[in-house]
Specification:
The protein is an alpha/beta fold and 253 residues long. The chain contains six helices and 13 strands. The chain has a single domain, classed as Ribonuclease Z/Hydroxyacylglutathione hydrolase-like (Metallo-beta-lactamase, Chain A). It has a seven-stranded mixed beta sheet, with helices on one face. The longest helix is centred in the C-terminal third of the chain and has 15 residues. The relative contact order is 0.13. The structure holds fe (iii) ion (FE).
Length: 253
């Protein structure tokens, strides 16, 4: 299944939500952005998704001409297939600067030469065709070096693990009210997000962007200003990560 999130004037955003067929592994969404024949994959995943994604992407662009693989962070469900994409296409890898010496461990020696674009902590505007994709800071949510990707044409925020929800129902149906999402997001964010402090900074930053649709890497999306505003109000007051840790969590058993 592919979900067309946006399609206007040669600019397309596609989500691929069902490429992970292994029931023991977490469902994940992969994304393709196309502008004027140029293309970027966001968080293509690992071996579990490579073949399906390769086939799916070839329906939209000539695979050899893929411009970028954008990696929000360093995890296996994000970018473990990078060796395959570097072999099959002429793409460059865009990744957080603090992980640019770790991600090459997914590849063979020399494979990354001349094909790595490191994004410094403050973020970057990545040119694609006649437009850009904004890499915006999302450090410590959950990874120490982490970016979300914002598409100014579609006004879609690809929010990585922020908003992630598992086993929450029909992947093609966005949440329209936060109450529908709370049972599926609370435990995850309490454990995977690092602290309330960074969540507040992130929410303040997101409010400066014109976001119509927030699409996480796992589960259903959040569509419309109302539910996105509710999500920001919820996350900025959530105690999570180190806020919830006590000495009881650090005992030898
Ligand atoms: Fe991760």
């Amino acid at each position: 299944m592919s979900i067309e999130l946006y399609n206007n004037n040669g600019h397309v955003n596609i989500s691929f939500p069902d490429l992970v067929k292994d029931v023991a592994s977490v469902q994940s969404n992969q994304f393709l952005i196309v502008n004027d024949g140029h293309a970027a994959l966001i968080d293509p995943g690992g071996e579990l998704t490579y073949n399906g994604l390769y086939m799916a992407v070839s329906n939209y662009v000539k695979i050899k001409d893929l411009d970028y693989v954008l990696a929000s962070h360093q995890d296996p469900d994000i970018v473990a297939s990078i060796n395959r994409w570097l072999s099959a296409t002429n793409c460059k890898l865009v990744c957080p600067e603090i992980w640019d010496r770790f991600i090459p461990h997914f590849t063979r020696p020399g494979k990354m030469d001349g094909r790595l674009i490191s994004v410094p902590d403050q973020g970057a505007n990545i040119p694609i065709g006649k437009s850009i994709i904004k890499a915006i800071p999302a450090h410590f949510m959950h990874s120490e070096g982490n970016f979300h990707f914002y598409d100014p044409l579609s006004k879609i925020l690809f929010s990585g693990d922020m908003g992630a929800n598992i086993n929450s129902g029909d992947l093609d149906t966005p949440f329209s009210d936060i109450s529908e999402a709370l049972p599926f997001i609370t435990g995850f964010h309490e454990r995977y997000m690092n602290s309330n402090r960074v969540c507040r900074y992130w929410a303040n930053m997101i409010r400066t962007l014109d976001v119509e649709w927030m699409v996480p890497q796992h589960g259903r999306s959040f569509k419309g200003k109302k539910v996105i505003g509710q999500f920001l109000s919820w996350i900025e007051q959530l105690e999570c990560g180190t806020d919830l840790m006590t000495q009881k969590d650090y005992r030898v058993i």
